[in-house]
Amino acid sequence: MRNFNRSFAKHWKKNVSFIVIAVFVLTCIVISQPPKDFPGSRFDIHVQKGDTISSVAQDLYSKHVISSEFFFKLASIIFSKNKGIFAGDYRFTEKQNLIQVAYRMAKGHQGQPKVKVVIPEGTNVYDMAYIYLKNLSDFNAPRFVSLAHDYEGYLYPDTYYFLANAKPEEIIKTMRENFNSKIKTIEKEIIAFKKPLNEIVTMASLVEKEAYADESRKIIAGILWKRLAKGMALQVDAPFYYTTGKAGGFTLADLKVDSPYNTYTNKGLPVGPISNPSLATILDTVTPIETPYWFYLTGNDGVMRYAATFDGHLVNKSTYLK
């Protein structure tokens, strides 16, 4: 009887080992091979924000992208460290197995081509909306303007690479984070200037539109800060581009328009930034050059002219703005 028990136990262990190995091999086959009816060579799978791993697994299984909901969920939990999967549009250009699909979704590798978008210095949210609309597919420009308007001045102008279907919320978040990162590099200069950041950015947005070289920006910043301290109206034309949409040729009616951005009828800074200045312009704004000048203009030849008196300014106007 003892020999029989030993023989039976030995035989059972051998069978169990075989079964375990067989199950393991079958599992590997299941998860390493895409379904035979895997969709075409190019298609997108949309994962909405808030979708659970289970709901995504069901969707993928129903569309024949994966062969097992259970193993997809298990792999996704492992790859994401139980944090869920990333929302977005996942593009497939070839067959992929369950492990590859789970890994991509757990890491947010959507497989969509990224589009290079250049946002020039001094653009405002309306300019940006137009640029994104030209470069990105199905871009919601009105929503972008609506959401971005409150962040005017704090959306850093730079070269970006976005997915072709990037949403306004994602773009604004990226640009805001870029601004915060850039501004930290000149934090000492900003603190030393002893003015609130909102005033600095608003002034920089004016300076960005008034001059194009470091020295002239520093001189103009010095003039405008002086006017502000003296209680004078800034009398800067740049805000009228922002409020009227005109490219120039402002009339007396434009200069009298009732607007918190009108620096002719209102003393002090505009209610907020009129553009998104570069880091160089912000730095020039907080490191201005002190001069005896109170007035400036850009001549028809593109050269900046300065004057210490209003009479001198009138002479410059009659000489260089013919």
Briefly say what this structure is.
With 322 residues, the chain is mostly helical. It is built from 14 helices and six strands.
Describe this structure in words.
The structure is a single chain. The chain has helices at residues 2-32, 53-62, 69-80, 98-107, 125-135, 141-148, 168-184, 187-193, 197-210, 214-230, 238-244, 252-255, 279-286, 310-320; strands spanning 43-47, 88-92, 114-118, 159-163, 295-298, 304-307. It has 322 residues and is mainly alpha-helical. The protein folds into four domains: 1-29; 33-107, Endolytic murein transglycosylase (Dna Ligase, domain 1, 2-Layer Sandwich), CATH 3.30.1490; 114-183, Dna Ligase, domain 1 (2-Layer Sandwich), CATH 3.30.1490; 186-291, no CATH class. The strands form three sheets. Strands 1-2 form a two-stranded antiparallel ribbon. The protein has a two-stranded antiparallel ribbon with strand order 3-4.
The residue-averaged pLDDT reads: 87
What is the spatial order of strands in the main beta sheet?
A: 1-2
The ordered H/E elements are HEHHEHEHHEHHHHHHHEEH
Radius of gyration: 31 Å
**Tertiary shape:** elongated
Main structural class: mainly alpha
Number of helices: 14
Question: Uncertain segments of ≥5 residues (pLDDT<50)?
Answer: none
